[in-house]
Amino acid sequence: MRAKHRVAIGLLVGMGVFASVCRGAFAEDAPTLGDAASAMIGTWEFSNADHDKTCRFIFRAEQVANGYKLDVDKNCATVFPATRDLVAWTIDTYGGLQLRDAAGKAAIELTEAEAGIYDGFEPAQGRYVLQSAAAAPILSAQDMIGDWAIARGTGKPICTLTLAPTPTGADAMAIRIKPGCDAGVMRFAPSSWRMDQGELLVLSARGQNWRFEENDANTWQRVPEDSDPVLLVRQ
Q1: In DSSP terms, which residues pair with 108 in a beta bridge?
Q2: Which stretch of DSSP H or E encloses residue 188?
Q3: What is the CA radius of gyration of the chain?
Q4: Which of 85, 117, 120, 226 has the least CB density, counted as fewest CB within 10 Å?
Q5: Is residue 8 scored above 50 in pLDDT?
Q6: How many Å apart are CA 198 and CA 181, to the nearest integer?
Q7: Spatial contact of 174 and 192, defined as CB atoms under 8 Å apart
Q8: Among candidate residues 43, 54, 37, the one with its CA nearest the CA of residue 128
């Protein structure tokens, strides 16, 4: 065999060994979620101790600069200013949960109170409670009865209505529209309402529906969200 052929073969073998070693090293270095971190993946509800302020977090397994990716509902910053810059989460060596901003600062620190529930404290805001969405209390129809305003993203009411307890059949209850309602709402023609797995469903006489999810105890937002949000605000 010619010398240059032997050199070429040697180079190919060396490159193959090097690639194999690198693959092995990368596989060993690839981080894996521990049991405590794996249990966090999914949707969680963040609230105050009285549960009259709430918002939602989604804990993801995707790695980011300062931990794992955290998605925060748009309304969270309004309800809880400390959540404004949160982008990541991590479990510390003592099992505590840290919610971090883009600079890596632990803006909120929580400890596990029991399975599926974490809590923390901030002097300005008081006690925080974080619980898995499955464990979070779900509002009943009884909680929703009363007067509500429909508002656009500006917050200005365009219609006032009453979610009444009067049954209309098919597990729904009556809606009473008050005078002066916006023409667009009247075209939709809301006629009844019901709760559906923690969300509020407003039913139209035309066979359509609007679905709302809770922002906090007094504000619900139509989903899916668009560029001109529709809110339900308790009166």
Answers
A1: 99
A2: helix 183-188
A3: 26
A4: 226
A5: no
A6: 26
A7: yes
A8: 54
CA distances from 152 to 81, 142, 186, 188 (A): 22, 25, 15, 15
Report pTM.
0.55
49 part of a folded domain: yes
The two most distant CA atoms of the chain are separated, in Å, by 98
Task: Using alpha carbons only, give the angle 68, 72, 78 rounded to the nearest 5 degrees.
Answer: 145
Nearest CA to 196 out of 184, 208, 213, 175 is that of: 213
Question: Count of CB atoms within 10 A of residue 11's CB?
Answer: 10
Over 90: is that where the pLDDT of 183 sits? yes
What's the pLDDT tens digit per position in 201-229? 999 988 889 999 887 778 888 988 777 78
As a whole number of angstroms, the distance between CA 184 and CA 190 comes to 11
159 and 200 in a single domain? The answer is yes
DSSP letter (8 states) at residue 137: P
Rounded distance between C-alpha atoms, residue 188 and residue 143, angstroms:
24
The percentage of residues in the chain with a pLDDT greater than 70, rounded to a whole number, is 83
What is the model's pLDDT at position 219?
86
Q: Quick check: helix, strand or coil at residue 209? A: strand
**What local confidence, expressed as pLDDT, does residue 188 receive?**
92
- The residue type found at 196 is D
Contacts of 51 (CB under 8 A, 6+ apart): 129, 137, 217
Q: Are residues 199 and 146 in the same domain?
A: yes
